[in-house]
């Protein structure tokens, strides 16, 4: 089993580091790490260091011997999923599983047919939940580069994002081309749009087509909005060689 991952504000470049606060408490009281066990410390931005526990002090302090800062290169191609806001806690489910699978960026999208709307304080809390979910799922998946969770975008802004990508697609059950056969770039950004429970509205499809994103289907079945992005990410990471 790979070493557990803990998040630090700045990856230490000295010989020793004290992990305390919530991460230290989790390491000592939940993970129950002991001297001699391996850990990974990361800033979630691709910088990380491997370490070995020297001592556990109290309930929330871990003394770790570290061995230099390393940097994970940017992935190529990068995979972004534009996720329409689902109902209830299905948004966190989508973020969790996409993060575990390996997505690089998640863009909340306020689609026309979204039942859920992020406004004011409620919107800020929902975005914070998505970001916290990505962080925790990144740790669980042993990632050192966590996905970026953007501020929510309008359809117009999503169109601009699609126009600047190397490959853009809208997951849609009426797409004539399977995503599994699409020609994919070796670098740059792949951007996928996942619609809400009510589907992508015709005017949104037109706007995205004008930006260069056409409808593709995943397979013969229709997936829920909370699972489509994860399935598509897995397909793409396999096809682009990032999983090989």
Automatic annotation (TrEMBL):
Purpose: Specifically methylates the N3 position of the uracil ring of uridine 1498 (m3U1498) in 16S rRNA. Acts on the fully assembled 30S ribosomal subunit.
Keywords from the UniProt entry: Cytoplasm, Methyltransferase, rRNA processing, S-adenosyl-L-methionine, Transferase
Highest taxon above the source species: Bacteria
Localization per Swiss-Prot or TrEMBL: Cytoplasm
Cross-referenced CDD domains: RsmE-like
NCBIfam families registered for this protein in UniProt: PRK11713.2-3, RsmE family RNA methyltransferase
Family: Belongs to the RNA methyltransferase RsmE family.
Pfam families: Methyltrans_RNA (PF04452), PUA_4 (PF20260)
Domain Ribosomal RNA small subunit methyltransferase E methyltransferase: 75-236
Known EC number: 2.1.1.193
Protein name stated in the entry: Ribosomal RNA small subunit methyltransferase E
